[in-house]
Amino acid sequence: MRDFIQTIIDEIGQVLLGKEEQIKLALACVLSDGHLLIEDLPGMGKTTLAHALAKTLGLSYQRVQFTSDMLPADIIGVSVYERDPGRFVFHPGPVFTQLLLADEINRTTPKTQSALLEAMEERQVTIEGETRKLDDPFFVIATQNPLSQMGTFPLPESQLDRFLMRISLGYPSPDAERRLFLGGDPRAQLARLKARLSPEKLPAIKRAAKQVKTSDSLIDYLQRLVQHTRHSPEFACGLSPRGALALLRVAKTWAFMHNRNYVIPEDLQALVPSVIGHRVTSATSGSEGHAQTLVAELLNAVDVIA
Fold first, then answer.
1. CATH 3.40.50.300 residue ranges in the chain?
2. Does 228 have pLDDT greater than 90?
3. Which of 13, 105, 110, 297 has the lowest tally of Cβ within 10 angstroms?
4. For 250-284, what is each residue's pLDDT tens digit?
């Protein structure tokens, strides 16, 4: 199964050049049964990564371009009266898919953003008093632009917490950018990507990742990280139990992806910025730069061995 994982990474690497680490983080999020938030400037490859993940994993997907005038019904669906059957007929929205690409999610209002809360947490939606199950598997990959840009609405904390991980792609290296110039538009190459995995094989990989072992000393280290966020005056609030469980869950997947059946402290350290960076805020400043500094200080302040 690990061979499948490297094949997927290599396949996506054909269209997202020089971003193997970000591809691995995104794949770890999906294999951990979590939702992914990709935040970066426009034109950095956020949508390309989401499309590539859907294609290589063999998932059905829908793309929704979020705008300020969008309504919750545009995502979930709506019942429309049809004269022929003489009754209201439900027309499902794009959320009824295996992978929903919520493009520029922070360009719509908080009311519309909240339409995804139940879907992301419960894998179901309640419409007009009726609960409808979503596809299995179901993932949300959302992209957002920096809040400093015009026309954006900040995601509320409850919405951010639904995302297992948040990553940024950043500018490509000079070598990768040169290969990009010589290779042409990556979006044109998306059509040539092949499905390297099927949704039927995903549960087996998830089960294998869950079997990865954690030692008592590793759990002790995790608890010290969590307790530091709760007791340090630098943090406005500490990491929740759900956030701590999320970090442990992805760490097991990360270890599995690196051909180990046990988690090591370096796994936690590699994932802390992506898993808890959007879950904690500075007590002195809520700016993004301070949040990144906060995570770095957390790793420096907590010793691996007590």
1. 1-199
2. yes
3. 110
4. 999 999 999 999 999 999 999 999 999 899 888 87
User: Which class would CATH give 1-199?
Assistant: alpha beta
What is the average per-residue pLDDT within 278-303? 79
Half-sphere exposure of 305 (CA within 13 A, CB side): 0
CATH of 211-306, one of 1.10.8.80, 3.40.50.720, 3.30.1490.20, 3.40.50.300: 1.10.8.80
Q: Report the alpha-carbon distance of residue 140 to residue 35 in Å, rounded.
A: 5
Q: Which amino acid is at 60?
A: S
- Report pTM: 0.91
The whole-angstrom separation of Cα 61 and Cα 92 is 14
Answer whether the bond into residue 203 is a cis peptide, omega within 30°: no
Of the candidate ranges 141-150, 263-272, 297-306, the one whose mean pLDDT is the lowest = 141-150
Residues of the chain with CATH 1.10.8.80: 211-306
Average pLDDT of the residues in 49-66: 91
- DSSP annotation string for 180-193: HHHH--HHHHHTT-
Nearest CA-CA partner of 16 in 47, 49, 41, 64: 49
- Max intra-chain CA distance, the chain: 71
Q: What is the token pair recorded at 271?
A: 């994932």
